[in-house]
Amino acid sequence: MDIGIIGAGSLGLLYSYYLCKNHTITLYTNRKAQADQINTNGLLMIKDGIHTRVMINADSTRNYKEELLIVTVKQYDIASVIAEINNLSPRTILFLQNGMGHLPYLSALLKHHIILGIVEHGALRLDDHTVQHTGVGTTKIAYYNRDNSQNTLIEQLETNRQSLFSIEMKDDWREMLAEKLVVNATINPLTSILRVRNGELIENDHFIKLLKALFIEVIQVLGLSNKELLWEHVQNICKTTAQNQSSMYKDIQNGHQTEIDSILGYLIQQATNTQKPIPHITFLYHAIKGIEVGND
Ligand SMILES: NC(=O)C1=CN([C@@H]2O[C@H](COP(=O)(O)OP(=O)(O)OC[C@H]3O[C@@H](n4cnc5c(N)ncnc54)[C@H](OP(=O)(O)O)[C@@H]3O)[C@@H](O)[C@H]2O)C=CC1
Ligand SMILES: CC(C)(CO)C(=O)C(=O)O
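A: This is the predicted complex of the input protein with NDP.
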């Protein structure tokens, strides 16, 4: 099948590499220089010290022709991509963003088959044509438009669960995204302002109290009831990614914009309806926004 991947950053390069084994990929870059580089040098994947090069087609024209598009831009670039997608003839579009900032835009895209996904891999773009697969996980996907539950294109993506690049279908997109948001809304901002790796949040007796207090606010805003299981889940992610710096912490260290608006910013918007106090969420949101201003 022909697949277009929009955004040639860490995830765009990772997905291009794995999907090009069975599909014809066009990777839509933001810059012509990057497309030229990929078309000339190929895409280089590094995993466990092994380097593998594949040739794929990269394109900076934004002339999306494929029946299946996978959007791998950051949340803060989603609005411009959605404006372009809106004008296309109907097709299947898979969004892989962290956070929930893209949700308000989706009601305008219902002529398309919208699929939402969360990514549990770690990927790092080392340069414009090189990506490192830093952690093997899975991709979970769920239908956003309920009436499109039979989507033969998406079914073609499904792969062996034992493989390095499995794709798992979930029933409920809201539950799937909420579970990931709980992780990103707790671990990411706290590690960023405390300047610690993920594991320290549960190893330090004081930090774990902050993590728990923030967690309680987050699940209340999202109206989630399975508190014990989710708390176990957050602590487990801290354990399994103990040596990692969260993506937000890395963004701050590198002077990049973060996805805080679509993570804690989204929760602050949701909380206006619940009347629940959210002091930790509010504090962390403004702390990260303030650091971003400083980085500017
Ligand atoms: N990396 C990871 O391990 C994981 C990432 N995610 C999520 O996936 C999403 C993408 O993250 P990631 O890949 O790390 O981000 P990156 O910043 O590495 O990549 C985003 C890419 O999108 C490009 N881009 C921006 N606007 C456009 C546009 N209009 N058209 C085409 N390309 C565009 C950027 O171009 P330019 O290079 O010019 O800036 C950049 O190459 C985020 O929501 C993130 O939270 C989720 C789980 C894991
Ligand atoms: C799971 C976690 C917290 C791993 O670092 C992550 O998704 C991120 O850093 O954005």
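The CA atoms of residues 234 and 278 lie 19 Å apart. The longest strand covers residues 113-119.
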